[in-house]
Amino acid sequence: MGELLLARWQFGITTTYHFLFVPLTLGLTILVAIMETAYVRTGNELYKKMAKFWGELFLINFALGVVTGLVQEFQFGMNWSEYARFMGDIFGAPLALEALTAFFLESTFIGLWVFGWDKISPKLHLAAIWIVAFSTNLSAFWILTANSFMQSPVGYVLRNGRAEMNDFVAVITNSYVWHQFPHTMLAGMTTAGVFVMAISSYHLLRSNKLEFFRPSFKYGLICTLLASLLVAGTGHLQGQHVAKVQPMKMAAMEALWETADPAPFAVVATIDQTARKNSFEVSVPNALSLLVYDSFSGEVKGINDLQVEYVSRFGPGNYVPDVPTAFWSFRVMVIAGSWLVLLALVSAYLWRTGKLEEKTWVLKAALYTLPVPYIANTAGWLAAESGRQPWIVFGLQRVEQAVSPVVSAEAIWISLLGFTVVYGLLAIAGVYLLHKFAVRGPESEVTLNQPQAGGKGSTLWI
Q1: pTM above 0.90, yes or no
Q2: Domain ranges of the chain
Q3: What are the pLDDT digits (tens) for 318-339?
């Protein structure tokens, strides 16, 4: 294995580890903030305990996300120095802004939120968690701004062999990021909703602390239902945008080798990348044109024609990404997302009719669905990044041009193995802590300040 392949493996492994924690962080901050808002508005201690309990799980996940993300930027200097040299003027700006306007803000107000319970006013404490939620998602925006430039470069000039920013406004208003960011943020909300539903289901199945986990399940269910439907909608819009700015990625995700009008949607396919064709496929006529154009007609360019076009634009080379990876990761994402929508709809119906706890199979389904949003998030990331290959910056720099010329394969092997072992141990520790706190559930006595006939609150052990 050469330096290029090892560097790609290292970045892929560390990024996948890191991205396991990011979506839950994005969504759970908002959900915890909503729970605390309910407490401040009603004075009901139950909502305070909900914010504290789910906030504990958020903090564990957040800490793991920070630790696993620290080494990401170092790799640009170690293994991808040519990329850093070529893109530093552009990539550095959103990364610096992410630290200055998001990470520092987030870290400061997390501390205030953790240590400020019953020490500052409830409204000020509530403001702290909403600032954390805002800054967490703002952090994601800056990272996706940098990634979106790699997907669809705007606001730059080429000078002295480097891409230099000449229009900051164009970079942050890049249409690619404004399709990508809502989809990512809503995927985080879906992950958080399923996370809350799954843990609540575990306790509901055991009739454990029902007064706490019934409303928790409801919060998670509403979040999952709304966010998963919006994820599907924003994903559809993002797919249409990809078809415009990265037609090769769209063709690869659909294993469409020949240009077609109307274009079919391949449900399954046996892909022969060497021969550049599908030896077998089951497809739905006209469906891909419908997805791309909202019409049963419309030309979608195929991989073979795009390869010829790219050779004429960029010079000799193979511009076809790994089609099986893009094709199947996209389908895994869609299947996983569809399952989440179905589960949320069925759960919402049963909750509405008061039969949810009678149908233990639904609660078990919600419990065992916990890994599904993580699978969907990872598969979506694989589809987005593998479909851009062989470019690291689309149309400007190929992956093999970005790797460090002086780092040896042996050095990358050492760091790759080291990162993999350390990240593996962190993952084990994280899962252990999350499992421990989730199974334990909330502790201590809670007074529910709900209006009753005698005008007094009721004390419940939850």
Answers
A1: no
A2: 24-245+324-440
A3: 999 999 999 999 999 999 999 9
